Amino acid sequence: MLDKRNFYINGQWVAPAKSNDFNVINPSTEETCAVISLGDQADTDAAVAAASAAFDSWSRTPKEERLAFIEKLADIYEARNDEMGEAISLEMGAPIDMAKTSQSGSGSWHIRNFIHAFKKFEFERPLGSHAPNDRIIYEPIGVCGLITPWNWPMNQVTLKVVPALATGCTVVLKPSEIAPLSSMLFAEMIDEAGFPAGVFNLVNGDGMGVGTQLSGHPDVDMISFTGSTRAGAAISKNAADTVKRVSLELGGKGANIIFADADEKAVKRGVLHCFNNTGQSCNAPTRMLVERPIYDQAVEIAAQVAEQCAVDTADKPGRHIGPVVSEMQYDKIQELIKIGMSEARLVAGGLGRPEGLEKGYFVRPTVFADVSNDMTIAREEIF
What we know:
Strand content: 15-25%
Strand order of the largest sheet: 10-9-8-11-12
Structural class: alpha/beta
Number of domains: 2
Distance between the termini: 27 Å
Mean pLDDT: 97
Number of strands: 16
CATH topology of the largest domain: Aldehyde Dehydrogenase, Chain A, domain 1
Number of helices: 12
CATH class of the largest domain: Alpha Beta
CATH superfamily of the largest domain: Aldehyde Dehydrogenase, Chain A, domain 1
Low-confidence stretches: none
């Protein structure tokens, strides 16, 4: 079992101000794989103070200097890609092959793309030919509180952290407490790249604790949050008193429209896309809207694809589906499947674990037909 109780604050791994252990659960086995600490107000204050103190000098560093740090981070990340994939697989259940490619690879892909964009970015540019003496000047906003989800850990962390650092902001990252190990590894990479103390800080915690403390903190200038609509609304309200900028990426219910003239693999492709990452993606096309002439055929194909989808533990190689991330998510999904069985027509899957898997948060790949827009399963994001 991994001991990951420390936080990364002001360029150092430091013990929490107050002991508050939290178990990280391997969703394939339901066993504890690591112990972290949930931060207190004192931890949040220390991280914000470090970021605030570092902002003045970091925001004034030449663009080329910040670029060099990020390029070094990209090299380190790519060298440790498999290690990152292993952390993601362990903490949130992505099958190891997918974790080392799509999951971990999304991080390096974003870092490299931000490097490409940053090289061409101009912080001062003319307003336009109509106003030759006027300029638009882009300035870093300040200390950014970044709150990321568990479903695509490095995808979200790199999307928030890298552009913030590139533009001269300093950050405090609060990853999901359910899947924090990959973010702690990312902090190691930041440290290895030599970023100045205080530029990047990490405090683990839950939404009610560190999340609330960051969104309401007077010295945090911006909050960027990805997660549920409920939490996003709470963050907006909490941030209002300090009039900080708030950026939210919240829940969705992706649609996939298939017309009668679609190619013959469109339905199969849509179902597999939906089940990718065990359905735990904000862009998962969970609602398949099919033109009537091919509806019955589409239902039959979708059911066949679902029944043929292999489900297994995350540590095994292959193109199977892993578990969902936690007991809470498993129970939520089971309840929604139960509701769906009372509302619509079940054509594949259903309640309980797949055959042969007695432990772990495994869900049967499930398809409902004859679903109308007023049904719960058509309106709720099922992960």
